[in-house]
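User: Please run a holo structure prediction.
Assistant: Happy to. Please share the sequence and the ligand.
User: Here you go; the ligand is 9MR.
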Amino acid sequence: MNRKRLLTRRRTLLLGMGAFTVAGGLRHLNNQFPEIVYEGKDAIGKKNFTVVGDIPLRERAASKGLIYGAASSYRALASNTDYATSFAKECAILVPEAQLKWDALRPSPNRFDFTRADWMAKFARTHGMLFRGHTLVWHKALPKWFAGTVNKRNAERILLEHIKTVVGHYAGKIHSWDVVNEAVFPEDGRSDGLRNSPWLQFLGAGYLDIAFRAAAEADPRALLVYNDFGLNYQYEEPKRAAVLKLLERLKSRGSPVQALGIQAHLWCDNSSKFNPKTLKKFLREIANMDLKILITELDVSDKNLPLDVSIRDRIVAAIYEDYLSAVLEEPAVIAVLTWGLSDRYTWLNETDSRKRLDRSLVRPLPLDTNLKRKLAWNAIARAFDQAPKRHSEQVKSE
Ligand code: 9MR
C-alpha cells in the first residue's frame, strides 16, 4: 500500500474521556489518557497476523540465513525452567542483558567474576545457541569503584586489561561483541557527534580505535560491533549522520569495526514514525562500507496504548511487522535479537512502565507473561517468512 493510501486509511483510536483527532501526534487529554493514531499497515484493522505452522522463530530465521535470538538475564534463565525451555526453543543466539557489563564482571578493580556470564555461555552451548557479548565500553553500568579509580593516566591500561581479559575469556566461543555501546550523542554538542562519556574525557576520540583493536587482538574470530540506539525514526537523522561519520572515521583509520548494531527500542506514538525509505537508505550506506548489520535490542513499548490488551497487541505486532519487513530487505542485516523474549522479563516494566497510567504490565515482547506466543510473535514469524534469503557465507558464526 502506498503512503497516500496509508494515510487515508489511518485508523483513529480514541481513549479516555474526550475524542478528537490528532494529526500525527500523541496528546494527553487533561493529563488523562493519551490518544494514539498509528498509521502502520492495518494496525488496528482486519489484519489477523496469520502464520503458517508453529515452527519456532529460530528455525524460520535460519531458513532465510538469518539468526534470531534474544537477551535474557541470568536470573530468569536460571530460576524458571519453563522460560529456559521456551528460550532454547525460539532462540538461536543468547545475549546476557547485564552479566557481561563492567558492574557485573568487575566487583573490584583487581577482580573479574565470570560466574554468571559463564553459566549463560554454557546454557547457550548446551542448547545449540550462539552466544553474544554486550558490552565492553559503555558510559553506563560501571562499577561503583570506577569513578574513584579510573583517570586520564590509567584509563588506557585499565581499558586494555578489561578487553584482553574479557574477550580473551570467551575467545573462539562468542559470535559477536558490542565493543562500544552508545558512543554517539549529538545532543552533547561536539562537532564529531561523540558522547561526552568518561572514556572520551580520559582518552579522547581515539578510545574507540583502542577498543576495537584490542578486541580484534584478543579474539580474531568474533564479529566486532558498534552498537547504538536512536537510528530508526525520521527525526533521528542527525544521529544517523553522526554514526555514519564515526564508522567512516574508524574504517579510515584501519580500526576493525565489522558491524553496526541497531538497538531498535521502538514505541507507539505518531511523532515517532520511521520511514522505510530513509531507513533502508541508511542500511544501504552502512552495507556499502562493507559492514554487517544486526538488529540488537528490538522491542516495542506499549506504554502509550490503551488498556485493552487486544488493541495493544495488534498495534505492537503491526509495528514489529512493518519494521522488520523494511529492515530485512537489506541483505547486510544478518541477525535480529529482541531485548527479552517474554513480557514477564522486560526492562520496560522497570523503567518505562504504565505505572502512572493504569498500572497494567507492558506487553512489548513476542511471548506473554505465561510464555504464550502473542501477535508480536506472529508478526516476527511473518517477517522472517517473507524475508529474502541470505547467502549462508554472509552470516558469521562460531
Ligand atoms: O535491560 C537492561 C537492564 O536490565 C539494565 O539494568 C540496564 C543497565 O545495565 O541495561 C538495560 O539494557 C540496556 C542495554 O544494555 C543498552 N541499550 C539499552 C538497554 C535498555 O536500557
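The pocket of 9MR is lined by residues 97-98, 101, 140-141, 181, 263, 297, 347 (CB under 6 Å).
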